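Memo to structure team: turn this sequence into C-alpha coordinates by end of day. - J.P.
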Amino acid sequence: MPYSSTSGFRMKKAVIGVAACVLFGALNLAAQGEQIFRGEVCLGPTGHTATLEKSQATAQCTFTRVKRGAKFVLYNPENKSVYQLGGHKKAKSFAGANVVVTGTLDKTTGTIDVSDIFRALPPKVTRAKSVFIECDACPRGMAVAWRAAFEELTDWGRFDVTPDPKKADLIFVISANPYLGDYLKRDGPDKRQVAVKITFMDIVDPSTGRSLWADSREWGSFLVTKATKSLISEFRDRLEIEESVGKS
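Reply from structure team:
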Protein backbone atom coordinates (compact mmCIF):
# COMPACT_ATOMS: atom_id res chain seq x y z
CA MET A 1 0.00 0.00 0.00
CA PRO A 2 1.68 3.26 -1.08
CA TYR A 3 1.90 6.34 1.08
CA SER A 4 -0.87 8.88 0.75
CA SER A 5 -0.59 12.48 1.82
CA THR A 6 -3.32 11.99 4.41
CA SER A 7 -1.82 8.97 6.15
CA GLY A 8 1.74 10.13 5.62
CA PHE A 9 1.78 13.38 7.53
CA ARG A 10 -0.12 11.75 10.38
CA MET A 11 2.34 8.90 10.67
CA LYS A 12 2.70 7.87 14.29
CA LYS A 13 5.51 9.47 16.23
CA ALA A 14 6.79 6.04 17.17
CA VAL A 15 8.23 5.87 13.68
CA ILE A 16 10.13 9.09 14.36
CA GLY A 17 11.69 7.47 17.40
CA VAL A 18 12.83 4.44 15.44
CA ALA A 19 14.19 6.59 12.64
CA ALA A 20 16.02 8.76 15.16
CA CYS A 21 17.90 5.71 16.37
CA VAL A 22 20.07 6.09 13.32
CA LEU A 23 21.56 9.21 14.87
CA PHE A 24 23.11 6.97 17.49
CA GLY A 25 22.87 4.51 14.75
CA ALA A 26 24.32 1.18 14.36
CA LEU A 27 26.08 1.47 17.71
CA ASN A 28 22.86 1.05 19.67
CA LEU A 29 21.55 -1.72 17.42
CA ALA A 30 24.80 -3.61 17.63
CA ALA A 31 25.02 -3.20 21.40
CA GLN A 32 21.55 -4.64 21.82
CA GLY A 33 22.09 -7.39 19.27
CA GLU A 34 19.39 -5.93 17.05
CA GLN A 35 19.36 -6.08 13.28
CA ILE A 36 17.43 -4.42 10.48
CA PHE A 37 15.37 -6.55 8.11
CA ARG A 38 13.43 -5.71 4.97
CA GLY A 39 10.65 -7.69 3.33
CA GLU A 40 6.93 -8.22 2.91
CA VAL A 41 4.55 -9.14 5.72
CA CYS A 42 2.83 -12.35 4.65
CA LEU A 43 0.41 -14.83 6.13
CA GLY A 44 2.24 -17.69 7.82
CA PRO A 45 1.14 -21.24 8.54
CA THR A 46 -1.17 -22.19 11.41
CA GLY A 47 0.08 -24.03 14.44
CA HIS A 48 3.02 -23.38 16.75
CA THR A 49 5.48 -25.79 15.13
CA ALA A 50 4.65 -25.28 11.47
CA THR A 51 7.16 -23.62 9.15
CA LEU A 52 6.57 -21.72 5.94
CA GLU A 53 8.07 -23.25 2.83
CA LYS A 54 10.02 -20.67 0.84
CA SER A 55 8.29 -21.75 -2.35
CA GLN A 56 4.94 -20.87 -0.75
CA ALA A 57 5.91 -17.41 0.41
CA THR A 58 4.99 -15.51 -2.73
CA ALA A 59 1.56 -17.10 -2.87
CA GLN A 60 0.99 -16.41 0.82
CA CYS A 61 1.54 -12.70 0.19
CA THR A 62 -1.29 -12.40 -2.34
CA PHE A 63 -4.11 -12.38 0.21
CA THR A 64 -6.98 -9.94 0.51
CA ARG A 65 -8.55 -11.11 3.76
CA VAL A 66 -6.89 -11.89 7.07
CA LYS A 67 -8.50 -14.52 9.28
CA ARG A 68 -8.67 -14.21 13.06
CA GLY A 69 -5.66 -15.74 14.78
CA ALA A 70 -3.51 -15.66 11.67
CA LYS A 71 0.27 -15.73 12.10
CA PHE A 72 2.52 -13.48 10.07
CA VAL A 73 5.99 -13.83 8.64
CA LEU A 74 8.50 -11.55 6.97
CA TYR A 75 9.44 -12.69 3.48
CA ASN A 76 12.33 -11.21 1.49
CA PRO A 77 12.01 -12.15 -2.19
CA GLU A 78 15.58 -11.06 -2.94
CA ASN A 79 17.26 -13.70 -0.79
CA LYS A 80 14.18 -15.93 -0.29
CA SER A 81 14.46 -15.62 3.50
CA VAL A 82 11.42 -16.22 5.70
CA TYR A 83 11.23 -15.19 9.36
CA GLN A 84 8.48 -15.55 11.92
CA LEU A 85 7.45 -12.23 13.50
CA GLY A 86 7.21 -12.28 17.28
CA GLY A 87 6.68 -9.77 20.06
CA HIS A 88 4.75 -7.22 18.04
CA LYS A 89 1.00 -6.76 17.68
CA LYS A 90 1.16 -4.42 14.69
CA ALA A 91 2.07 -7.04 12.08
CA LYS A 92 -1.56 -7.49 11.04
CA SER A 93 -1.89 -3.83 10.07
CA PHE A 94 1.07 -4.24 7.70
CA ALA A 95 -0.27 -7.38 6.00
CA GLY A 96 0.81 -7.42 2.36
CA ALA A 97 3.05 -4.35 2.77
CA ASN A 98 6.78 -3.95 2.21
CA VAL A 99 8.27 -3.05 5.57
CA VAL A 100 11.45 -2.44 7.52
CA VAL A 101 11.75 -4.34 10.80
CA THR A 102 14.18 -3.80 13.65
CA GLY A 103 14.62 -6.61 16.14
CA THR A 104 16.65 -9.53 17.44
CA LEU A 105 16.82 -12.75 15.44
CA ASP A 106 16.62 -16.14 17.14
CA LYS A 107 18.47 -18.27 14.59
CA THR A 108 17.26 -21.49 16.20
CA THR A 109 13.58 -20.79 15.59
CA GLY A 110 13.93 -18.29 12.74
CA THR A 111 11.90 -15.77 14.73
CA ILE A 112 12.51 -12.02 14.89
CA ASP A 113 11.70 -10.50 18.27
CA VAL A 114 10.37 -7.27 16.78
CA SER A 115 11.11 -3.95 18.45
CA ASP A 116 9.50 -1.89 15.69
CA ILE A 117 8.08 -2.12 12.20
CA PHE A 118 7.20 0.51 9.59
CA ARG A 119 6.47 0.76 5.90
CA ALA A 120 9.45 0.75 3.56
CA LEU A 121 10.06 3.76 1.36
CA PRO A 122 9.10 3.24 -2.29
CA PRO A 123 11.97 2.43 -4.71
CA LYS A 124 11.34 5.80 -6.40
CA VAL A 125 12.62 7.44 -3.21
CA THR A 126 15.59 5.20 -2.48
CA ARG A 127 16.87 5.45 -6.07
CA ALA A 128 16.48 9.22 -6.40
CA LYS A 129 19.51 11.40 -7.12
CA SER A 130 18.05 14.89 -7.55
CA VAL A 131 15.34 16.97 -5.88
CA PHE A 132 13.42 20.19 -6.42
CA ILE A 133 12.22 22.26 -3.44
CA GLU A 134 8.71 23.70 -3.68
CA CYS A 135 7.63 26.09 -0.94
CA ASP A 136 3.94 26.04 -1.77
CA ALA A 137 1.98 29.17 -0.83
CA CYS A 138 4.52 30.26 1.78
CA PRO A 139 3.55 33.68 3.13
CA ARG A 140 4.82 35.38 6.27
CA GLY A 141 6.63 32.97 8.58
CA MET A 142 6.56 30.15 6.02
CA ALA A 143 8.80 32.14 3.68
CA VAL A 144 11.91 30.85 5.48
CA ALA A 145 11.08 27.21 4.72
CA TRP A 146 12.71 27.11 1.27
CA ARG A 147 16.08 28.32 2.54
CA ALA A 148 15.92 25.99 5.54
CA ALA A 149 15.24 23.03 3.26
CA PHE A 150 18.02 24.02 0.89
CA GLU A 151 20.53 24.34 3.74
CA GLU A 152 19.57 20.98 5.27
CA LEU A 153 19.68 19.14 1.95
CA THR A 154 22.99 20.76 1.03
CA ASP A 155 24.52 19.79 4.38
CA TRP A 156 23.28 16.23 3.86
CA GLY A 157 24.74 15.99 0.36
CA ARG A 158 22.65 12.95 -0.60
CA PHE A 159 20.76 14.71 -3.43
CA ASP A 160 21.53 17.30 -6.06
CA VAL A 161 19.15 20.24 -5.59
CA THR A 162 17.99 21.33 -9.05
CA PRO A 163 16.20 24.59 -9.96
CA ASP A 164 14.17 22.76 -12.61
CA PRO A 165 11.34 20.50 -11.35
CA LYS A 166 11.29 18.71 -14.71
CA LYS A 167 14.81 17.43 -14.05
CA ALA A 168 14.16 16.32 -10.48
CA ASP A 169 13.61 12.74 -9.32
CA LEU A 170 11.64 13.99 -6.31
CA ILE A 171 9.78 17.17 -5.34
CA PHE A 172 9.99 18.33 -1.71
CA VAL A 173 6.69 20.18 -1.20
CA ILE A 174 6.71 22.30 1.96
CA SER A 175 3.55 24.12 2.98
CA ALA A 176 1.39 25.33 5.87
CA ASN A 177 -1.51 23.36 4.38
CA PRO A 178 -1.80 19.57 3.99
CA TYR A 179 -0.98 18.30 0.52
CA LEU A 180 -3.98 17.36 -1.63
CA GLY A 181 -2.10 15.31 -4.21
CA ASP A 182 -2.74 17.90 -6.88
CA TYR A 183 0.79 19.14 -7.63
CA LEU A 184 0.54 18.25 -11.33
CA LYS A 185 -3.12 19.22 -11.76
CA ARG A 186 -3.45 22.70 -10.34
CA ASP A 187 -2.48 25.91 -12.10
CA GLY A 188 -0.03 27.78 -9.88
CA PRO A 189 0.44 27.60 -6.11
CA ASP A 190 -2.09 26.40 -3.56
CA LYS A 191 -4.81 29.07 -3.32
CA ARG A 192 -6.28 27.96 0.01
CA GLN A 193 -6.13 30.28 3.01
CA VAL A 194 -2.97 29.84 5.04
CA ALA A 195 -2.62 29.86 8.82
CA VAL A 196 1.02 29.26 9.66
CA LYS A 197 0.60 26.82 12.54
CA ILE A 198 1.79 23.53 11.06
CA THR A 199 4.71 22.88 8.71
CA PHE A 200 3.89 20.05 6.31
CA MET A 201 6.40 18.30 4.08
CA ASP A 202 5.54 15.83 1.34
CA ILE A 203 8.01 14.07 -0.91
CA VAL A 204 6.18 13.95 -4.22
CA ASP A 205 6.69 11.83 -7.32
CA PRO A 206 7.05 14.44 -10.12
CA SER A 207 5.66 12.04 -12.73
CA THR A 208 2.44 11.19 -10.84
CA GLY A 209 2.00 13.88 -8.17
CA ARG A 210 1.63 11.14 -5.55
CA SER A 211 3.01 11.69 -2.06
CA LEU A 212 5.66 9.05 -1.36
CA TRP A 213 6.48 10.09 2.21
CA ALA A 214 5.20 12.85 4.46
CA ASP A 215 5.02 14.20 7.98
CA SER A 216 4.44 17.49 9.80
CA ARG A 217 5.49 19.60 12.76
CA GLU A 218 2.91 21.64 14.72
CA TRP A 219 5.46 24.14 15.97
CA GLY A 220 3.95 27.49 14.95
CA SER A 221 5.12 30.31 12.69
CA PHE A 222 8.23 31.22 14.71
CA LEU A 223 9.76 27.75 14.37
CA VAL A 224 9.29 27.10 10.65
CA THR A 225 13.03 26.92 10.02
CA LYS A 226 13.51 24.41 12.83
CA ALA A 227 10.45 22.42 11.76
CA THR A 228 11.59 22.21 8.14
CA LYS A 229 15.06 21.03 9.07
CA SER A 230 13.59 18.54 11.54
CA LEU A 231 11.36 17.03 8.86
CA ILE A 232 14.25 16.61 6.44
CA SER A 233 16.37 15.14 9.23
CA GLU A 234 13.61 12.63 10.01
CA PHE A 235 13.39 11.65 6.36
CA ARG A 236 17.17 11.33 6.21
CA ASP A 237 17.14 8.97 9.18
CA ARG A 238 14.43 6.82 7.61
CA LEU A 239 16.28 6.62 4.30
CA GLU A 240 19.59 5.77 5.97
CA ILE A 241 17.95 3.01 8.00
CA GLU A 242 16.75 1.36 4.81
CA GLU A 243 20.01 1.87 2.96
CA SER A 244 21.85 0.23 5.85
CA VAL A 245 19.99 -3.07 5.34
CA GLY A 246 22.47 -5.62 4.08
CA LYS A 247 25.49 -3.38 4.69
CA SER A 248 26.11 -4.33 8.31
